[in-house]
Transmembrane channel-like protein
Amino acid sequence: MKRLCLSQQPVRVLPYAMMDKRFIRQLREPEGVKTSCWQQWRRRRQTAGRRLGEAARRLTRGCGLWEGALYEIGGLFGTGIQSYFTFLRFLLLLNLLTLLLTSSFVLLPLVWLRPPDPGPALNFTLQCPGSGHLPQTGVSKFNNLLWNVFTGRAFNNTYLFYGAYRAGPESSSTYSIRLAYLLSPLACLLLCFCGILRRMVKGLPQKMFLGQDYRSPLSAKVFSSWDFCIRGQEAATIKRHEISNEFKMELEEGRHLLLLQQQTRAQRACHLLTYLRVNVLIGLLVVGAISAIFWATKYSQDNKEESLFLLLQYLPPGVIALVNFLGPLLFVFLVQLENYPPNTEVNLTLIWCVVLKLASLGMFSFSLGQTVLCIGRNKTSCESYGYNACDYQCWENSVGEELYKLSIFNFLLTVAFAFLVSLPRRMLVERFSGRFWVWLDREEFLVPKNVLDIVEGQTVTWMGLFYCPLLPLLNSIFIFLTFYIKKYTLLRNSRASPRRFRASSSIFFFQLVLLLGLLLAAVPLGYVVSSIRSSWDCGLFANYSAPWQVVPELVALWLPPPSQRILYYLGSHAFSFPLLILLSLVLTVCISQSQASSRAIRRLRKQLVWQVQEKWHLVDDLSRLLAEPGSGDSLGPESPVSRGSRPRSFCPGFPCPGSPGPRPRKPGPSLEDPEGLRGVSVPAH
C-alpha cells in the first residue's frame, strides 16, 4: 500500500478493479488534507498532456499515410509483404526529413541572404594535351530539352546541383552558408543512421533473445487470433487470410528445423563442400560483373565527344541494371543445380544479390573517382588542380549528373517492368490456356528483390547529397509513385511468393541492407569532403583546398584562442588514445552486462521449468487424494478424460520436460493427514 501511495503511475493504468482504484485515489488524496496549488497545477498539466498525447496518437493512426492500403495488403498477403510497403513509407519519411533539413539550413538562408553574383569567370590557362581550350561541361551537343531533362543538363544552373550555390567570403557574421552546406549532408546521414539503427533493433527477431528452443504455441494462435470486433464481410475475409498466413509461416519454420535436426555429420560435410564450390563460382561471376561496370563507366566518360554520346550517357546505368537482372538468375541456376532445400536456396541467393548490388554501386563510385578525380592516374591537370580540370570544369556537377541519371533510370526501369512486362504477362496468361501458359503463370512478387531495388535507389540518393542537394526531393516523388505501382502490380499482375516471410525477420533484413548502403554512401563522401580539391570556378568551396578547410577558418574567426586550442586537441592524434581507452571501458561494461543478463535469463528459464514440474507433482498428488475407489462418477488418475483434460504446459512457448505424458504413481499424504493439501490449488484448464 505504501508503494502504491508513493507511486507516480496514473491510477487509470493500474491493473485493479474500479473499486480498488477509487480506494487508491483516496489513499493518495485523503479527505481533510489540502494539496498545494503547485501540486494541483502539476497534476492538471500532466493529465492534460497525457490526454493531448493520446489524442495526437489516435489522430496519427487515423490519418497515417497508407494505413488502409497497408492493412489490406497485410491481411491478403501476410506481414512479410506488408513489411516491404511499410519500408517504403519509412524511406519516404527519411527523404522528407533530409529535404527539410537541407531546405531549412541551406536553401532558405541562401535565398534570404541573397548571395552576390559570381561575376566573370576566372581566366586560367591549362596545359591540356590535344586541345587548346577547356571544354564547357554545361553545353550539350544535342539541343533537345527532353534529353537535357533526362541527363540533368537542363538543371545545371539551378539549386538542384552543387555549382549553383554561391556565397561571398567568410566574415564574422553569425551564419555561414558554407558550413551549413557542409554539415547538412553529414547531419542527414547521422539522423538516418540513428533511425535505421533504432528500427533495426526494434525489429530484431524474438528467437535471437529467446533461443532456439522457443516455440510459439499454435493453440494460442487458434483460440486468440480472431478479432471479435470485426463486423464487415471484407474485414473478416482479410482477417482469415492473415491467420492462415501466420499458420503457414509457423508450419514452414517447424518443418525446416526438423530437416536440420535430421541431418547427419556426413550430410553436413557434403553440404559444406557444395557451399564452398557454389560460392566460389558465384564470387567469380560477381567479379566479372563489377569489372563490366568499371569499364562501362570508364568508356562512357572517356568518349564524350563521339557521335554515340547520346547512348553513352546511360551506358553505366544500363550495365548496372543488366548486371543486377542477370546476376540473380545465374545465382538461382547455380544453386538449383545442387538441389538445396528451398530455404537454403533463397538465403544463399539473397546474400549474393546483396553483395552484387552494393559492389556494383561501389565500383561505379570508384570508376567515377578514377576518371574525374584521377585516382590512380597521372595527368597534367590532376597534378595542378587535384582533379581532371581539362575534361571537368565543375566536377561536382558532373558527378551529380551521373547520380541523377542513375536515379532516373532506376525509376524508369520500375515503371517499364510494371507496365511492359508484368501487365502483358498477366494478360497473356489469362487469355490463353496450355501447358506453357500454366508454367509461365503470373509474375511472382519477390520481396527481397524489390527491397534491393529500392535500397539501391536510396543509396544513390545518399551518395548525391553533397553534389545534388535536392535529390531527396526527386527520390521522395519516386518512392511515392513506386508504392502505388507496386501495389497495383501485387494486387493485379502478380502472385504471392510461396515462401512466407515473418515481419520481424523481414524488417531486420531490410534495415541491415539499408545500413550497409548508408555506410557505402558515407565513405566516399567523407573522403571527398576531407581530401579532394574543389572545383576552381563553381560552388561554395571554389577557393578552398578541400571543403573541410572552411571549418578551421570559421573556428579561427568565431572562437577565442582557449576554445580553439580545446578543439584542436580534440581533433589531434593525442586525444585518440584516451578516447580509445574510454571506448574500451564502455565496451567492456556493455559486454559484461549482456553476459550477466544472459545468465539471469537462463536461470529464470530453468526456474520456470522447475516450477512447472513441481506443479505437476502437486496435481498428481491431488488427483490421487480425490480419487475414491469404487466411485463410478469420479475420474481417477488413469481416466482418459482426466488425462485429456490436462493442460499441456504452464509456460507456453518454452519446453517443460516434466509436463507431457503420464507420470508414475507416487505415495502421497494420507486422508488422515490433510495438512498436505494446504496451499495446493487445482489449475483450471
Residues 119-123, 131-143, 631-685 have pLDDT under 50 and may be disordered. The longest strand covers residues 443-445.
